[in-house]
Design a protein that fits this description.
single chain, mainly beta, 2 helices, disordered N terminus
Length: about 200
């Protein structure tokens, strides 16, 4: 009992001193928040946005199996910057001999793969992701050359291999494109056009 009393008496003063106002608890010193590292975007990001943004009007042409000659029509392709100016979203409309056409496209440069992705979802049941590179445009002009893409078209998902090239002219105020789709079993669809932009 005596030992217990001595232990209690020895603890009480230590507790009193620790809680005394003359002995405040040490305060944590706040550290200033680290400044975020902001990397400059690759030049190709701005280049891709700059070349595609604006309201484009095309004289377009379409030739497909079963057609005696190519059909011609007007097409719009209106692109606006998105995602903090790192890509463009484009809405396309046309009245073709086969009926109305609509498409939404997302175009942006990917710093990881070092390529431009030209992604399209259309009223022809197409979901295409073209992988393209700058300086390989139509007929050697400045523009985009895309890797041949195996994809589908139509409600039945008919397989095709599409080759897409895009070339810019007159300081980027005009553009031309050629899309050639090779169908399984033979035949091809050639979709092309030349357009001007208003910015």
């Amino acid at each position: 009992m005596r030992k217990l009393l001595m232990i209690v008496l020895s603890i009480v003063p230590a507790t009193a001193i620790a809680g005394h106002p003359d002995h405040p608890k040490p305060q944590k010193v706040p550290h200033p928040p680290a400044k975020p590292v902001v990397l400059a975007p690759p030049a190709e990001v701005a280049e891709t946005v700059r070349n595609f943004q604006g309201n484009w009007t095309f004289d377009a042409s379409l030739k497909a199996p079963g057609m005696s000659q190519a059909s011609t029509f007007k097409m719009t392709f209106n692109c606006k910057p998105i995602a903090g100016g790192n890509a463009v979203s484009c809405e396309s409309r046309a009245k073709t001999p086969a009926g109305p056409f609509e498409g939404t496209f997302l175009i942006g440069y990917d710093p990881f793969s070092k390529a431009v992705h030209f992604i399209g979802v259309t009223s022809q049941f197409e979901i295409h992701d073209h992988v393209c590179h700058w300086n390989q445009g139509v007929a050697g002009k400045f523009g985009l050359g895309c890797t041949p893409l195996k994809a589908g078209t139509g409600a039945d998902g008919k397989e095709l291999i599409e080759e897409l090239s895009i070339g810019f002219h007159k300081d980027g105020k005009e553009v031309e494109f050629t899309s050639t789709s090779h169908l399984t079993g033979g035949g091809e669809i050639v979709f092309s056009g030349r357009g001007k932009v208003k910015r």
